Amino acid sequence: MSENGKPDDVEQYLKTTFLARIAHDIRGPAGVTQTAIEELENALGPSLAREHAALLGILKRSSRRILRVAEKLSRGSEAAQGPVLQVASARIRPIVERAVRESEAIEGRRNVSVKLDFDAAFDQPGRDTALIDASWFETLVIEVVSNALKHARSSVRVLLEETADQLVLSVADDGRSGSPKLRKLFEPSNERNGLGLSLSLAELVMRAQKGALSVGGAEGGGSTVSLRLPKATTMAISPAASSGNGKANVAAAPAARPRVLVVDDDADTVELVAYALERAGFAASSARTVSEAKAVIDSVHPDAIITDLSLPDGSGADLAVLPGAKLIKTKILVSGHSGQMVDRHTGSEGFDHRLVKPVDIDELIRILSRSLAKPAS
Questions:
Q1: CA–CA separation, 38 and 56 (whole Å)
Q2: How far apart are CA 110 and CA 98, in angstroms?
Q3: CB pairs under 8 A, 24+ apart, for 203-210?
Q4: Helix, strand, coil tally for the chain in percent (to 5)
Q5: Percent of residues, the chain, with pLDDT higher than 90
Q6: What band does 351 get if pLDDT is binned at 50, 70 and 90?
Q7: Sign of the CA dihedral 154, 67, 76, 210?
Q8: At residue 270, does pLDDT exceed 90?
Q9: Angle at the Cα of 117 from the Cα atoms of 115 and 119, rounded to 5 degrees
Q10: CA 150 → CA 69, 185, 223, 229, distances in Å?
Q11: How confident is the model at residue 84, as a pLDDT?
Q12: How many CB atoms within 10 Å of residue 247?
């Protein structure tokens, strides 16, 4: 701290840029590991021995936990700069379902069950639509549900209800800690906020979205965390907020395989993504630098490009404005940073999609399938 009591440049750097870079460096190899495990599991299929399946399960959980650390560091960096929220109409139910699945994959225990309970009203289209930043909200739900799983003795209940002007998500556990102890996790703390490693960020983000967070006791013991969200004034649902779990309805594939260029300075990432694309029926080529990518674009004329943001000789964002890029149908920018950090530090307007590492291969193939009229496999 400086003499006037204000954070000096070094402290601010550690809370923002340094944390963001660590998150980026963790996401890369951890994401490759997770995707490689999933591809191996898919390739082996029914032939996978039971004991080997158990070992792969341990590896998957461990890689997910490492990725959660990267996510927390990245969110902490954003919060230290003042979170810039992208509030829009979004469906809450699919977000909650994804968050619960992720929480169970990371913190799930054999003796603890999770019950999802939604108001019958949410069976009507649009009733579960709220005004939120969907990415931040999903992160918060994962944190709250994961915390409940850690403390529960036998069960966690996730309940989504509606009032006249709000949607209320409640997460209750039957643990022994009780609300006073849990309440401390949500109290502001310079140490915790700086690293983004606690639930205390939740209240800050909920207030910024004109929502609220409360902590209380659960019936029969344990604690309940409630997130209150303002309902959307319109029932229109942003395409970006869809669950993305369904298969796309697309036209028949062209005779030639769609050509996809993969650009990343990490050899394992390039090899793994190219392998998955080839298995899905695409013709994959690769490059490790901006200059290599330029040469491939000029010679191969790819139908789509998937590029990392940070490359040894420049920014992957520059590839979108090349003269040869005008003929590329689909441009996908990938980064180890969150969307907010990309918005702050790069010009990524020329890209059709932006994805955060680790890239979900199934989602990537669905995007390419829709845009290049290649049936999803």
A1: 9
A2: 19
A3: 204/79, 204/83, 205/79, 205/83, 205/85, 205/133, 205/136, 205/137, 205/140, 206/140, 208/83, 208/85, 209/85, 209/87, 209/131, 209/132, 209/133, 209/136, 209/137, 210/131
A4: 50, 20, 30
A5: 15
A6: confident
A7: negative
A8: no
A9: 180
A10: 16, 14, 12, 25
A11: 65
A12: 10
Helix axes 267-279 and 19-44, enclosed angle (nearest 10): 40
Beta strands in 163-255 (DSSP E): 166-173, 212-217, 223-230
Q: Give the pLDDT of residue 160.
A: 92
CB 338 within 8 A of CB 356: yes
Q: Is it the case that residue 218 has pLDDT exceeding 80?
A: no
Looking at residue 170, what is its pLDDT? 93
Q: Which residues contact 196 (CB under 8 A, 6 or more apart)?
A: 19, 72, 73, 74, 75, 76, 77, 78, 79, 80
**Phi, psi dihedrals of residue 232, rounded to the nearest 5°:** -70, 140
Query: CA nearest 71: which of 146, 136, 144, 145?
Result: 136
- Main-chain phi, psi angles of 87, to 5 degrees: -80, 130
Q: Using alpha carbons only, give the angle 222, 183, 130 rounded to the nearest 5 degrees.
A: 90
Instruction: Tell me which DSSP letter residue 231 carries.
Output: B
**Helix or strand (DSSP H, E) at 119:** none
Residue 199 is inside which H or E element, if any? Answer: none
